[in-house]
Amino acid sequence: MTRFFISSDQIKGDAVFLRGEDRHHLLNVLRQGPGGEITVLNGKGEEYLVKITAVTDDQVNGTIINKVERQTEPRVKITLVQSLPKADKFEWILQKNTELGVSRFQPVFTERSNIRLAPEARERKLERWKKIIREAAEQSGRQIIPVLEPIRKWDEIISGFDDRLVLIPWENETTRSLKQVLESENEIPKQVTVLIGPEGGFSLKEVEKAQSKGAVPVTLGPRIFRTETAGLVVASALLYHYGDLE
């Protein structure tokens, strides 16, 4: 079933309207028309089965058949704080972690980041990244579009953590494993923040600063993961541990 995230003002009672890129994709790519059925989501966790009723020059009209009752979002909300990698690795990170179930992305510049972006380039990147997240959310059956925060600096990120559990995988941590930390928790946290370093890893100073603010360094085992792999590994472990990947 084709899925579209639309804004709340595109739903009026039982009537639904698709415009712009969604209209183009539905008509010209998917070759759908009156009588066809699609799924629309309002980004607030509500999902509807819709029958297409008419096509005009600027929109596609549809009628809600019924509300879809199901739950696809993880109980634990994961924020991935990702040091910006080079090339297109970050796009892959956004896509795959959206498919997995990450709720929020925070791109960050760290000491060993291999990428720098001028302000105007940042805006273009953010728009592209938001599109990638939305498409991945539609494809993977998510009921919300994960939040993408503006690019920030490391000191801004660690100024104070809101989540009770903040994890920082670090290759120089050799005794405290991710499994040990998760098993020591007395209750399931509502939110978890995961801090992932760049290709060259976090500096000692960055880890110490994060630790002073409550982040817990953990080892992910004897092998070193790439920056684009590490976050996916941790998020998968979290969702499995808390029963979302059963």
In short:
Helices cover 32% and strands 26% of the residues. The protein contains 7 helices and 13 strands.
The portion of residues assigned to helices is 25-40%
Low-pLDDT residue spans: none
CATH superfamily placement of the largest domain: SPOUT methyltransferase, trefoil knot domain
The name of the CATH architecture of the largest domain is 3-Layer(aba) Sandwich
Rg on CA atoms, Å: 20 Å
How many DSSP E strands? Answer: 13
Outline, from the CA principal axes? elongated
Main structural class: alpha/beta
CATH top-level class of the largest domain = Alpha Beta
Structural overview:
The protein has 246 residues and is α/β, with parallel strands linked by helices. It folds into 2 domains: 3-68, Hypothetical PUA domain-like, domain 1 (Ribosomal Protein L25, Chain P, Beta Barrel), CATH 2.40.240.20; 77-241, Alpha/beta knot. It contains 7 helices and 13 strands. Strands 7, 8, 9, 10, 11, 12 and 13 form a 7-stranded parallel beta sheet that branches. Strand 2 and strand 3 form a beta hairpin. Helix 2 runs parallel beside helix 3 and helix 2 (89-100) runs parallel beside helix 7. The chain starts with a strand and ends in a 5-residue tail after the last helix. The model has no long low-confidence stretch (mean pLDDT 92).
